Structure formats: structure tokens, C-alpha cells
Amino acid sequence: MVRPISGAKSVGIGPSNVSRANASERWGEPDVVVQYEEYFVEHDVSTADARKAAALLKLDNIPATIVGCGVCSQRDMEYCETRVLADHCCCERQFIPEPFPWLPHTCYVGPHRCRPLAHDCVRYVRLRDCCCYKKLAERWKSILSKSSRLRAGGAALLLWVLLLL
Q: Residue ranges of the domains in the chain?
């Protein structure tokens, strides 16, 4: 049997985690109040559904940009890489046709109104259509087609190894 050298000590954060001078002192009530916010799945695109949509995606039919868009800056392209999906979840709900059916994602909705990272939904739509759509379509078509080939290749390799045994 293993016994600790010292007595049990409370572990945590906050003023209630101070050590007592003696055993007769009482611990105070914690100053930390835990509050929760519930979030619900607003809509999602599974990897399987995204893979099917990517297989049907014709990259040649997607223009690099739309007339009147102008040039996309490096900052705009970084937005496409890191923040466009968050704004998609904020600005576009399930009753709007999914603009990214080939991109696996889950959008949540909570008690507070979200604020688009592009500052407003109109700017998000412009960036999505002018800068992000073709780039993301190319990237995710490539990612999803490679992952399906790897899975098929792995199954073929396993079958080959089993035949050798």
C-alpha cells in the first residue's frame, strides 16, 4: 500500500486555494461562478458528403474571379485560409443553399448574435465569391480526392499482404 507523505491538499485556481493555517479553519465559498452557454448544430457537411460533392465539382466551371471584384490582396487570401468558414457559419444559415458542399464543417448557433470577422456579411459574401471560392474548391477537391485514394490504396496494400501470407 502506498501512502502520500503529506495530507491531501486542494488543487485549483482562485482565493479558495490558499492553504489553511490549521485544521479548524473553514474553507470559504469559491468566488468563481461557472456559467454555461448552449450551442446547437445549425448545419453540417460530413466528410462523406463533402467527398461526394468534391467528386462532382468541375473546377473548370468556376471562374477565378467575378467581373467587378478587383484584385484580391494577400490579406484577403489569408482571410480565405483562416476565417471565411467562421463567417459562413455566422452569415449563412441552413435555409440558404450551402456554398461549400465540398468542405466538411459544422456550424453552431448559440444564444448570442455572432459578429462576422469580415466586419459584416456583405463584405464576407464579396470575399467569398471574389477571392475564396475557387481557391477553397481547388484545395478541398485535392484534399478529399487524395484521402479517398489513400484509403483505397491502403485497402489494396492490405489485400496484397494477406495474399502473400
A: 40-145
